[in-house]
Amino acid sequence: METLYAPKGSAQTALIEMRGITKRFGTLVACDSVDLHVQAGALHAIMGENGAGKTTLMRVLYGYYQPDAGEIYLNGKRVVFRSPADAIAHHIGMVSQHYSIIPELSVLDNLILGAEPTRFGGWIDRKSALQRARTLAQALDFDPNWHRPAEELSVAARQKLEILKLLWRDAQILILDEPTAMLSPGDVETLFAILLRLKQEGRTILLVTHKLNEVLQYADWVTVMRGGRKVAETPVSQVDAEQLTRWIVGEEEPRAAEPAHAAPASASEAPERLTIRDLYVRSDRGGWGVQGLNLTVRAGEIFGLAGVDGNGQTELMEALAGLRPIARGELLLEGQPFTHWNTAQRLQAGIRYLFDDRFRRGMIATWSVEENAILGFQRDSALQRFGWQSRRAIRERARQLVERFRVKVPALTAPMLHLSGGNQQRLVIARTLYGTPRLLIAFAPTRGLDIRGTEATYAAIREGCAQGMGALVMSFDLDELMEYADRIGVLFKGKVVAIFERHEFSREAIGAAMVGLGAPPS
């Protein structure tokens, strides 16, 4: 596979050169002889489908992985990173999708952990640490209570803290992996304002993202990967969304997604699948995570629930799944109360759940793909022969799921940990949507998915809705909900503060409601 576009001279001005980088995991080739050139002071985006090798390539640059072949050059000099400590010593820092903040530690202690300033006698110099922290934080418009536990920070503030940790270690090259996945529209704009400010100060930023609008609006350069190889590297000014999509998916013409928001004309009269009445659920800290929440999800509709992380999504999801006690209120499935049902009873009744944390609640990483494909469905009669599990039936089920959602796997017998994060998510989604549930409750179902994965997910949800399923989808991605949902409710401080019909969708209005400036519910 040849690079489709690589402007002449791009390597001559590069601050970072990665030459012929190859990284294997068993039989899986995650990066296959990849070249990357990054100019000093640029905001350089890395795009591609799930499993394309983007994060692996960045982890090689950060020293988290060591390449099986290839070389890295900084300012024309070859460097070898055997660990992240080596990369940090060369002023490279990385913020992963999953934050590394320790919730119980203070904001200041999280910032300085591993790089504490000391004074005579080896004691930590907390006074000078606080002074420097405040100085660095000014560039990020970040003014927290430095002595409070980091768990009290909002998601946007945690993102700033992660970036500040890089600045604390004097990172000049910042690698950010899907940094906007959980931010509100306003917080996304704030983040990029910060990144552009850091770029103006001379720092170089590498941005792993699936979001075309972010790349086209903010990036200087973009590299596109597909199947572990680089297929394009170009200034953003010389490309458009259509061309990027062709490079990403490897098709001559971009696919026109079917309108996934065409709810039945009689949706307002459709029967109620889920009804939540005056729900109160406590958070882990004892306060109300959910308070006085009311909403209804009808048969045949996708009801999107927007909100900034930390406004009750986790408590609501766990309460709906029977994993967290309900202090007050009522849950009804087609008019039948299920408030006190256990999780098994809810699953048996046709309720399906997609959790945001696939590692903890969606898969067993050491089990094979085919074993994970039937996780929770082991007693399905279609998978048994004469009372025993049928390996042939299990393998066929796994094959169907893998093919339908285009899950890239080395083999059906390969452990899940050998799949990329996006492909793990695809398999979990495919398994959850198998058959026709009566009700789907999903929390950030497409987090980390690429264009095709997102489209496939909502196409499958819409297919279920066409057969009468109702879907409640909680997401931090407002653009996604506006594209696919039939109605959008806004969750703020544990309650639904506004509901928008499709003809009322407005990014500005919904975004305002997400930060507490919305109108009362319709």
Approximate helicity band? 25-40%
* Domain module count: 4
Number of helices: 17
> What's the number of extended β-strand segments?
22
Gross morphology: globular
The main sheet comes to: 6 strands, mixed
Kindly identify the CATH topology of the largest domain.
Answer: Rossmann fold
Query: How are the strands of the largest sheet arranged?
Result: 6-7-8-3-9-10
CATH architectural group of the largest domain: 3-Layer(aba) Sandwich
Strand coverage percent: 25-35%
Q: Structural class given helices, strands, pairing?
A: alpha/beta
Q: Please state the CA-atom Rg, rounded to the nearest Å.
A: 24 Å
What does this entry look like structurally?
There is one protein chain. By secondary structure, the chain is an alpha/beta fold. A hairpin with a 2-residue loop joins β21 (487-492) and β22 (495-501). Strands 6-7-8-3-9-10 form a six-stranded mixed β-sheet, sandwiched between helices. Strands 16-19-20-13-21-22 form a six-stranded mixed β-sheet, sandwiched between helices. The chain has a four-stranded antiparallel β-sheet with strand order 2-1-4-5, with helices on one face. It has four domains: 14-100 and 154-249, Rossmann fold, CATH 3.40.50; 102-152, no CATH class; 272-350 and 438-522, Rossmann fold, CATH 3.40.50; 366-436, no CATH class. The longest helix has 16 residues, at 185-200. Helices cover 30% and strands 25% of the residues.
